[in-house]
Design a protein that fits this description.
- With about 325 residues, this protein is α+β, with helices and mostly antiparallel strands.
- It is built from eleven helices and eight strands.
- The strands form three sheets. Strands 1-4-2-3 form a four-stranded antiparallel beta sheet. It has a two-stranded antiparallel ribbon with strand order 5-6.
């Protein structure tokens, strides 16, 4: 049996269900993972640990014939690592003085139990809104960076790690439920995304053409540039690669943030339009890779090499 705590649940790619053991009866109960997360995060003790089992099959652990999967034991203490914290007078998102703000709308990030330790004050709703906008661009909430001025007007950066979320945002503040709902929705999006990715990856021909598209974005040599730019289509997704029906399917594809692929790509193009053009290899290719679950190194796979050679040799795609 696995002994898992908050960080284990957040670190793992979530499965739809897991098994929770009832200590009174010793029976195992099948519970959605997100509900486990909710129960844990609403508990007061920081060091709470629950016994969970993630089975290799859907068979109940209560069955005598059930084969116990490989077991691991993890003991993880939940603590915020040492951070560069700005003891800010001005809230970085709305530029209000912290002393003038309603404390019910403020979250405090702190790297010590000492009440006199440096703290970072943030307006909860503004923080969440900014995190959501960045999530649409493919930025994980666990990699989000807050920039704020300290008491000496020096700009400091604080990364919202998993530990920060668990220690300061998902518990112990007036807006904890709001942040918990956001994380819960993200897990639910991942459940749905997992099913959609399986569907996409099982369509072998479309999946290989999507890899051809990604490969051309990465390399952007003259032949690739011709395929990307001379056949129309949104976001370089021309009919040299996809039919109109396939293009609509791919652009309506869900992402981990809850936005569609079209919304995520449009957010990328909009953000880049203020500083210049979107780079196919450095901007668009990584976004496509993240949205559709394309693994690095696929260009060395034998089936892709053979398919791409044939694809590149075609004068026109059948959909053109």
């Amino acid at each position: 049996m696995d002994n898992l705590s908050f960080i284990d649940i957040l670190d793992q790619r979530p499965l739809l269900n897991c098994w929770l053991q009832d200590y009174d009866s010793s029976y195992w109960i099948r519970v959605p993972r997100i509900e486990i997360l909710r129960m844990l995060l609403k508990e007061v003790p920081v060091s709470i640990i629950v016994t969970l089992r993630f089975p290799a099959s859907n068979k109940s652990p209560n069955s005598l014939l059930h084969l116990t999967p490989t077991k691991k034991e993890k003991n993880v203490e939940d603590s915020v690592k040492t951070l560069s914290i700005a003891d800010n007078f001005i809230e970085p998102f709305n530029q209000f003085r912290v002393s003038d703000m309603d404390l019910d709308h403020v979250v405090v990030i702190q790297n010590s139990v000492d009440v006199h330790a440096p703290r970072l004050f943030l307006h909860a709703e503004s923080l969440l809104k900014t995190v959501q906008v960045d999530a649409e661009k493919g930025i994980s909430p666990f990699n989000f960076i807050v920039r704020a001025e300290d008491k000496n007007s020096m700009l400091q950066e604080v990364k919202l790690t998993r530990q920060v979320w668990m220690k300061c945002l998902l518990r112990g503040n007036p807006r904890a439920d709001m942040f918990l709902d956001y994380i819960a929705a993200g897990f639910e999006n991942l459940f749905m995304l997992g099913d959609k990715l399986k569907e996409l990856h099982s369509n072998t021909d479309l999946w290989l053409r999507l890899k051809c598209f990604h490969y051309d974005l990465r390399h952007f040599n003259e032949p690739a540039k011709s395929r990307l730019e001379n056949y129309g289509g949104e976001y370089y997704m021309s009919n040299r690669y996809f039919s109109e029906e396939e293009l609509n399917y791919l652009l309506m594809f869900p992402t981990a943030s809850g936005a569609t692929a079209r919304e995520s790509l449009q957010a990328l193009f909009t953000s880049k339009s203020n500083i210049g053009e979107v780079c196919s290899s450095h901007d668009l290719a990584p976004a496509v890779e993240n949205i559709y679950g394309i693994r690095k190194g696929f260009e060395k796979e034998k089936n892709f090499v053979a398919y791409f050679r044939d694809f590149a040799a075609r004068k026109n795609h059948p959909f053109f």
